[in-house]
Amino acid sequence: MEYSLYKLDPLTGAENRVEMLPVLRQELALVQRNAHASSIMIMDLDHFKRINDTHGHVVGDSVLATAVRYAKTILRPYDRIFRYGGEEFLVLLPQTSLDEAQAVAERIREALHDQVLAHDHEVAVSITTSAGVGLLEPNLTVEESITRADTALYAAKQGGRNQVRVSAPASPFTAGTA
């Protein structure tokens, strides 16, 4: 009960942002020590403001909660999803290569794209998501790795939305390539 009150976003069920940095720093320490790859993904619901403006915040809230629920059906039990901002979510994919993370992001994107959400059986809303994927790199800070994934997200949005973009590793040596 206490965990859910303080560590989970009450609307979506995702972990809150306060928990995110300590968890990511712990995973980065494991990446640095064990030389295994871990990835992060930042996903953003496309044109979310339009959903709120057209259908209202109750429907918008339902869309956010549904998006997290669908994402969790694709994620493994030890993957972590955090509410990063309004309609943005950061996903930690431990022991996951960049290629594997891209595949997970594509599965989430496709699952959300294939859903038509109904609210009170009156409003049908389709959603798409854009995502940026990057490694949690041993030679970068957590914040630098987040920035790289976020840059990939913006490239996906500028490229037309409803797509996944990948951030190339910052250096030739990254965890999992040794």
UniProtKB/TrEMBL annotation:
CDD domains, per database record: GGDEF (cd01949)
GO molecular function ontology, one term from the record: diguanylate cyclase activity
Cofactor(s) this protein cannot do without: Mg(2+)
InterPro entries: Diguanylate_Cyclase (IPR050469), GGDEF_dom (IPR000160), Nucleotide_cyclase (IPR029787), Rev_trsase/Diguanyl_cyclase (IPR043128)
SUPFAM superfamilies: Nucleotide cyclase
EC number, UniProt record: 2.7.7.65
Cellular compartments per GO CC: plasma membrane
Pfam families: GGDEF
Boundaries of every GGDEF domain copy: 36-169
PROSITE patterns documented for this protein: GGDEF (PS50887)
Name under which the protein is recorded: diguanylate cyclase
SMART domains assigned to the protein according to its UniProt record, in alphabetical order: GGDEF
Swiss-Prot/TrEMBL GO biological process terms: cell adhesion involved in single-species biofilm formation; negative regulation of bacterial-type flagellum-dependent cell motility
Superkingdom classification of source: Bacteria
